[in-house]
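Researcher: Here's a chain I'd like modeled. Treat it as a single chain, no partners, no ligands.
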Amino acid sequence: MQKMYAGPRLRALRVQRGLSQSGLARALGISVSYVNQLEHDQRPLTVQVLLRLNTSFALDMCYFARDTDARLVADLHDVFAEDPEGAAISPAEIDDLVARMPIAARMLVGLHRRAHGALEQLERASEGTDSSATESPIARPYEDVRDYFYDRRNHVAELDAAAEELFGSNRLTLGGLDLQLTRILREQHDIAVVIRNYDPLKPGPKRRYDPKSRVLTLARRLSHGQRAFQLAAQLAFLTQTETMARLIDSAEGMPDLSRGVLRIGLANYFAGALVLPYTLFHANAEALRYDIELLAAKFEVGFETVCHRLSTLQRPEQRGVPFCFVRTDRAGNISKRQSATAFHFSQVGGSCPLWVVHEAFSAPGCIRTQIAQMPDGRTYLWLARTTDENTPGYLAPKRDFAVGLGCDLTYAEKIVYSHGLPINDPRTAVLIGAGCKVCDRRDCAQRAFPQIGAPVHVDDNQALTVPYGA
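Model: Modeled as a single isolated chain. Structure tokens:
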């Protein structure tokens, strides 16, 4: 087991709880000198001390985990990379900032995100394309909600518990869940569910609810699993109003324009948790070695739905493999990103072209795998596949996405997709990065842009692969 040094974080915990070193020593049943050594990283945290800390202070088990810091460190690299003077800040200084002042570090990341949003809207306003920019110069509803779930590792315990309780109390079962949820809406909420006749010229929304007539209309094109999801989302708006309101109120700094979008995001989270109830889904995922296609068949949902749900299995007492989930289009635009890992998504520029997620478009419907290593030395097992959502009609515009699911390589043996891969040979890992503008791999042949903040050297006497050198 790797030794864990977490002195600054332990000190921050002690100060936050208003304890002296002697007070913390009494709470843990250790000597004051031992506490002092732990806080100055002269001694590592032992398993016994970690257990006492978690018990005495009701900490999340990942409070001292390095993955938590790694995500924040990577986000800070983005923050400082955009400032020319940021190149003078060493990785060691960023690590120290995160370790000693994690709250301040998170505030910096939050300010950076809002500054980006303000700049984007000012640019649109100057071009005359965004009339709302003057009303709310820092609102980025889509990005704000995406960051909300990302910062919470895509796990909302309150909604998970509520969905599982509803599933159990109504004795719901797998198979025909859309019919069962239709019955609940009719018997418990006096809402009728009808299927809209398909009109190829006016396909309409997936779900539409009329509060006056108390009629919920679903699109005929939806599969049984998709109908169950939409019915579950409607149940979220009916049964989880107070819970979602509390979660939204707890989102400090969330602009008003983003709160409505967050409400929809929370309802969709509840829907996924009801269609794929935590304990049942977690048990099947473990038993089937996280085989996405087998899970999709058993729970009657799509490939993307299973991938997204797998990224949420972070209940402290019943954790699944910590996954990172992403959805992207052919242009590399990331429309969904959730992570329970240290894997970092850059918000500066595009994603890495060497990432296997982009290869999925070359073989639609086939699962592609990759062992990839990030610049921080962490290695991940990735799988990617195009989505199975189709738009009927030869002339209809197609919805074309690829989804990716990744986890730290240390979990590879628990996952069926590691079968036949050289997971013990570090030489086979593909070297990828968070995006060219923040990646420090100077010798990458696929580099499209120089790293922000890094010096650019020009030599008239050399013809390099890229028009600049390190």
